[in-house]
Amino acid sequence: MSKVWFVTGSSRGLGRCFVEAALGRGDRVAATARSTASFDDLVATYGDAVLPLAMDVTDKAAVFETVKRAAEHFGRLDVVVNNAGYAQIGAIEELTEPELRAQLETNLFGPLWVIQAALPILREQRAGHFVQLSSAAGIIAMPLGGAYQVSRWAVEALNETLAKEVAGFGVKVTIIEPGGFATREGKNPNPLANGHVAEPSPVYDALRGRLAEVAGKQPAGDPVAAAQALLKVVDAAHPPLRVLFGRGFYPMIQQAYADRLATWAEWQDLSAEAQGVLPAETVGADR
What we know:
Layout: E1 4-7, H1 13-24, E2 28-33, H2 40-46, E3 50-54, H3 60-74, E4 79-82, H4 97-125, E5 128-133, H5 146-166, E6 171-178, H6 205-217, H7 223-235, E7 242-245, H8 250-266, H9 268-274, H10 280-286
Parallel strand pairs: 1-2, 1-4, 2-3, 4-5, 5-6, 6-7
């Protein structure tokens, strides 16, 4: 049975590939972007199966109206993909308040508005699937990515909470955590050349060099393959809450979680003291 998709940020990159994969197998798609001009070729190829919609995810009223229009046009929504987003780069000391607020408006509040607009529809249907594009940066933190990582860690928590709240209504939630993908001229995007870089301070020049080096060593994933993988996720009877797309960051993620567990274990006695509970060995000695 064909599905109806609602995809944000679908003019290029992974979002565009998601739309093309869905249309290519006979699904219908409400494709949104700030401008619909990039969808002309899709309309020419797929006709009424694609509904181009102009929408800025930071405009709450526009999001609610656009989601409503898509649902009324197709009669239902099955897969809602929060893909729109960007990465603000800069050391914590370098970030300006407008830069951080703009990052959160797009990467956190944008998905929130889409969820709030679509959830009543999916809940009434007793079916549907929210897909949230996060990142490996939603799991681990690296220098110069503070603003972006704050936004991605936040949507991870938002969607994990959502999953627990909507499971009883038959609504599913999956967080996609991509590594690097060749979304710009067959290459991984250079985070230092994405147009969203804070005014640099020379004291962090060495970190910028390391960031470029790490990004350059990551394997460039195939966006088309990622789209095919997403089809398997949305077709699964029991889709994962989280899934990595790409293997480049997996060793770093494993190490990050191992380090966290080791630190918590090392400081267990202090954790007990902070709660007003004496460590077990101290209690035994007092006896």
